[in-house]
């Protein structure tokens, strides 16, 4: 969504407010035709690209340049010749990596509510089932390298504002595979009046494939489409059968049925045995030669008669392949809480101008340091050596041990720029602190403060307040997305009839992030010991506090059992010793 104001008739620039308007101050984001400069990416000038995606992809490209210290290079390609001397020392990347580290915490754990009671003496069947699902999800996460995939996807989300996961069933490995995609390949088809939080019913993953002259391949466009639609009949598309005949007497596929009352085909999915569904997800994977596309043919309406459909390993053509799922197996992760926009906002959004100012100040500081280290020297009354061939004075060389012969009244002056250099370095620190404040990354979290300079732990905790609110908001924006991902993992395993996965309603699962700030483990241990000893804290509560502090306790309930048994054995041994030491009665 966006708001445009202005009047081109009187030569005024258009005032545009959208999810990427914080980049409007960059000349490369607004060319003479209103589109971003070609230097951002040739793809943004492609005719197949939807108009609403142009600014988003340009913003991604610009943010990636800042992350890779290439903002100056990008500005040079856009026509700013002076930007080639720009100094970039990784401040943008440091902000992104610091935010990512605090977001993810030291660990991530899959939790299924109720699983903690599975080892109770009176454990219910629900608790045992929850523990089994929790164990299977954790084994799947380990096999699919979930923490590693999260690092890749979440860094994209923190930097660009969006991340993307794709789930697919692998019949050979008999498990769900997890992939991450660049959000620049993500093109959802959003309805005009749809809520930003609603799940789209049609999604494209698309990118251009470069020309390969050696193999004789032209430049192509690949589009993978996931679309929700009504269940097809078994004879739909068959030779000799018209569409009217199909509608009159639809033939259900294996496992489907026809509802005479509703007049539709329906299917009972394993995760909803009591609720038949008339919806399924179709997969289409095809390529188009770029030169075959006419101007005006956008991504969502490419001509199917010019498409080359790809085939699966088993020879199945990927043309509206029925995945036998009632959802699209894609999870879009937004970096920020949706506020009228489907896409999120980068962590660098509010500090982009501060990063530009910081780079310019670093550039000025580098120039000043060169004149401070090798100052400009003026000599008056010097007698330079004369070149015997040309008869001209030789250039003077300044180096340690050099002696100049000066005539009467001669003098030497040195241009001292050390004061300007000191001011520039102080300015650098001032801008960096300002950027950290606006990004809600305290200096202590960036590692620029000596811990000994912090007066007390309470003062440290107060300084981390903005970081706490930042991390809480980012985790809140992701909580339901990871719950959805784990729900999809269970359902796809059910659809693939994987061993050990129950054919029933899936259980809710969530991903719990570890603590994002350092903890005083010794202080927490002392607090737990005092609380449990004084019986103001339950032993189970104390164990969970130690878990949250980072102590290597895998299962809180098992730890409680071990401690209780140790106490009982100690009490029994003490009782036996007391009995053996007591003299017999006369």
TrEMBL record:
Write down what this protein is called.
Answer: Phage portal protein
Native species of this protein?
Streptomyces venezuelae
Ranges for the region named Disordered are 564-586
């Amino acid at each position: 969504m966006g708001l445009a104001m202005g009047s081109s008739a009187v030569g005024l620039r258009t005032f545009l407010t959208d999810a990427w308007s914080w980049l409007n101050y960059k000349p490369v984001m607004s060319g003479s035709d209103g589109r971003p400069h070609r230097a951002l990416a040739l793809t943004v000038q492609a005719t197949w690209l939807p108009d609403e995606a142009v600014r988003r992809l340009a913003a991604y490209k610009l943010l990636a340049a800042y992350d890779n210290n290439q903002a100056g290079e990008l500005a040079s390609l856009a026509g700013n010749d002076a930007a080639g001397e720009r100094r970039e020392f990784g401040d943008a990347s440091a902000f992104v990596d610091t935010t990512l580290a605090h977001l993810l915490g030291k660990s991530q754990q899959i939790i299924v509510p109720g699983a903690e009671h599975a080892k109770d003496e009176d454990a219910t069947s629900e608790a045992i089932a929850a523990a089994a699902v929790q164990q299977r999800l954790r084994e799947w996460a380990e096999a699919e390298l979930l923490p590693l995939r999260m690092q890749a996807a979440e860094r994209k989300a923190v930097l660009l504002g969006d991340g993307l996961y794709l789930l697919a069933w692998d019949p050979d490995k008999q498990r769900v595979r997890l992939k991450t995609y660049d959000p620049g390949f993500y093109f959802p088809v959003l309805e005009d009046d749809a809520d930003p939080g609603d799940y789209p019913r049609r999604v494209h993953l698309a990118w251009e494939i470069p020309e390969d002259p050696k193999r004789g391949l032209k430049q192509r466009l690949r589009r993978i489409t996931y679309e929700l639609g009504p269940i097809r009949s078994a004879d739909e598309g068959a030779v000799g059968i018209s569409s009217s005949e199909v509608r009159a007497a639809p033939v259900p596929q294996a496992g489907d049925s026809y509802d005479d009352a509703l007049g539709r085909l329906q299917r009972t999915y394993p995760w909803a045995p009591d609720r038949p569904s008339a919806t399924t997800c179709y997969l289409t994977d095809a390529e188009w030669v770029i030169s075959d596309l006419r101007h005006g043919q956008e991504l969502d309406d490419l001509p199917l008669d010019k498409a080359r459909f790809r085939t699966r390993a088993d020879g199945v053509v990927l043309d509206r392949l029925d995945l036998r799922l009632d959802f699209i197996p894609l999870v879009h992760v937004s970096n920020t809480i949706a506020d009228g926009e489907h896409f999120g906002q980068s962590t660098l959004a509010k500090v982009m101008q501060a990063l530009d100012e910081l780079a310019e100040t670093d550039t000025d500081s580098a120039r000043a340091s060169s004149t401070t280290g090798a100052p400009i020297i003026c000599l008056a009354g010097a007698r330079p050596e004369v070149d015997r061939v040309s008869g001209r004075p030789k250039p003077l060389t300044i180096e340690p041990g050099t002696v100049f012969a000066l005539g009467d009244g001669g003098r030497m002056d040195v241009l001292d720029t050390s004061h300007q250099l000191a001011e520039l370095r102080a300015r650098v620190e001032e801008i960096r602190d300002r950027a950290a404040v606006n990004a809600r990354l305290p200096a202590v979290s960036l590692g620029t403060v000596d811990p000994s300079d912090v007066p007390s732990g309470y003062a440290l905790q107060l300084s981390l307040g903005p970081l706490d609110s930042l991390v809480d908001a980012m985790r809140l924006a992701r909580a339901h997305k990871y719950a959805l991902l784990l729900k999809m993992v269970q359902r796809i395993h059910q659809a693939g009839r994987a061993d050990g996965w129950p054919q029933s309603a899936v259980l809710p699962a969530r991903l719990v992030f570890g603590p994002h700030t350092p903890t005083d483990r010794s202080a927490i241990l002392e607090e737990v010991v005092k609380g449990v000893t004084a019986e103001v804290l339950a032993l189970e509560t104390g164990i969970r506090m130690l878990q949250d502090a980072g102590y290597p306790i895998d299962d809180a309930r098992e730890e409680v059992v071990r401690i209780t048994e140790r106490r009982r054995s100690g009490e029994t041994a003490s009782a036996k010793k007391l009995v053996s030491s007591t003299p017999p009665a006369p």
